[in-house]
């Protein structure tokens, strides 16, 4: 149900709530369609507020009774909640409401997933549970009583009394309502324990359905590793007696950091070698860490308002990235983070959805859980650390926890801590939070042989973005190293702080003209434009002592070779193939890193690169060139492939650690080239022999790509039809790998499969999200891809606005394409917008995308 006109909320309009809350008591009487929620809330006037209107949010609630200090009160139902005459003194509000969890398909508030009750309250779901000031700056302690038949009844904090049909929980830490959680169901626990640095024993549990018990061990270990890491690296100790994680099948996002009761999408916590790939294990480890780290960066210190979302998300992503780098290979982790940033955040920042890391307006906050807030938000923290140095960063973080523990804070508070800890003025740095768009940094070189001075002149610029026509120069930390013509490092990495629009870096007293390695480790989220020839790139690919830039040089070479094939029908670059051969043959390199050295840019990536150059991308040509390029690599590396494949097979049990996963990644990347030569023979034997999902799925992908997958697809389904998470892979793989002419048909056929369930976000994304990710298929000139996605988005919007709105971003690059495709897409976007009763979520997204 959409309000008459969607309302825009502005950061500049922030005012504190008129009341403070001392305590909240909630009683839940669970029932699938008639859950009763009784609330008892102690309010008192907020001395810092100017407006004492007593307004409580509420959505889809049936009010049974409302009392103030024990007396029935008359309430006024207003847009988004209710109002009553709030006394100008402390008082007790009591209300009883009725809600219907089993019909809640939006998966926000209290809902049911496969017969179990669970909640998702961030950002504004608590208002679907009871009337409440549902805003993060209102914090309170919660005491919860759950009455229900389910054997397991969980909420936040520490456990209290428990008996037949009820359980009580009490959370001693003040928290905003978005961190509230409740779970009830027939669950079993995979137990664990952790002793904190000060000697406190914490009970740990991962709660799952009985049939998932064998998939918990890895997540439990990741949780313990995270708890230890946060103590060792940030000095942060856990603060309750118990930490519970629950796996839920129907979940809009990855996971949620509810205090002491994290709720996870089952795909983000459950894993076993037979059913999960190395990539799944790695993601699970990172998400468990992320949610656990929120206990300090998010829960103990939360956000004043939702505009400050990056305060907790950017910082927590940054922390989980540091954790992954420490647990696994730091070099590979950095490459993966940058690939993800470029694949998800760059297109957002360079299209109609571009917004600052700290947005200043929104209609639906759920639409701002974006790659910009999360991943660019993390990059901004990384830059801050680079600029102030590791020690100052550690001091600033200590000060942040000391000064703001228990607060609902802002980006201003965060930056002030750094200013106070370091004496630095961060006024200009703050532009990273307020100015949207990806800066371009171009560089030119100069060499003065006489004085031995080498100069790099940098120029930065950022194109206008929606609502921001003028951009000011930002502070950009540029990591620079210098190599000799023989490839020796003659100057270790230095940070050049760029603050002006144009600025020159100089190295003096050099005896030879050096070769610069610029933006090492991807020291800032910018697009570096270097006017260098491919011989230079090949040199860096062979010699750069910075592992990130070495990989980047190879990537740039491959990209240019591909663009030349697409634009000029050129043959695959001999220089590239030759360079790749040399580097790829080096078996002293870490296998995971080596696998990335031969990976080529994806088709969407190439399309965006072309568009950025002002060339209209042709999806068919990009697809054909990508295939031809891969074939050329296979031919060029031919004799190396089989030995690498053999050398990277592992005897013994599957271990999803850095070493094992690295070898499998390299062997599988080689398998994809071998398949180009043997047509799938090796893939078939790997498919048959594999005892783990990493090898099984890679082999299946190769068979499908080679057009030999029919039997394997059937066999795979028969083997795994009882396992939802595996069947998600089965749906997704078929759509993702379908040829350009077939993708829309394959997706449509799968939506008719009995296992397709549009109410389950994982399955919906596995099918329709995979279509959007199949570049040549989605952008098929018939428009069939656009139409199939649109049909389903329109259907899903009635049930689940949040997931619908997120998936609309598939259309965000539409203006990059030719007029025919633009017209086809525009017609679909308008069809969505014209839908009767379109959700606020989707309406905002489509309106922004249309521009
Ligand atoms: N705070 C969660 C996380 O990043 C994400 C929850 C977002 N949920 C939502 N409906 N917007 O870990
Ligand atoms: Zn988060």
UniProtKB/TrEMBL annotation:
Gene3D superfamilies named among the record's database cross-references: 2.60.40.1840, 3.30.2010.30, Neutral Protease Domain 2, Peptidase M1, alanyl aminopeptidase, C-terminal domain, tricorn interacting facor f3 domain
Domain Peptidase M1 alanyl aminopeptidase C-terminal: 536-850
Keyword Translocase appears in the UniProt entry: no
InterPro entries referenced in this protein's UniProt entry, alphabetically: Aminopeptidase_N-like_N, Aminopeptidase_N-like_N_sf, PepN_Ig-like_sf, Peptidase_M1, Peptidase_M1_dom, Peptidase_M1_pepN, Peptidase_M1_pepN_C, Peptidase_M1_pepN_C_sf
Residue intervals of the Peptidase M1 alanyl aminopeptidase Ig-like fold domain: 437-531
Requisite cofactors: Zn(2+)
Reaction equations catalysed: Release of an N-terminal amino acid, Xaa-|-Yaa- from a peptide, amide or arylamide. Xaa is preferably Ala, but may be most amino acids including Pro (slow action). When a terminal hydrophobic residue is followed by a prolyl residue, the two may be released as an intact Xaa-Pro dipeptide
Alphabetic keyword roster: Aminopeptidase, Hydrolase, Metal-binding, Metalloprotease, Protease, Zinc
GO molecular function terms noted in the UniProt entry: alanyl aminopeptidase activity
Domain Peptidase M1 membrane alanine aminopeptidase as annotated: residue spans: 219-429
Domain Aminopeptidase N-like N-terminal residue range list: 96-179
Enzyme Commission number: 3.4.11.2
Family: Belongs to the peptidase M1 family.
Entry protein name: Aminopeptidase N
Species of origin: Cognatishimia coralii
Species classification: Bacteria, Pseudomonadati, Pseudomonadota, Alphaproteobacteria, Rhodobacterales
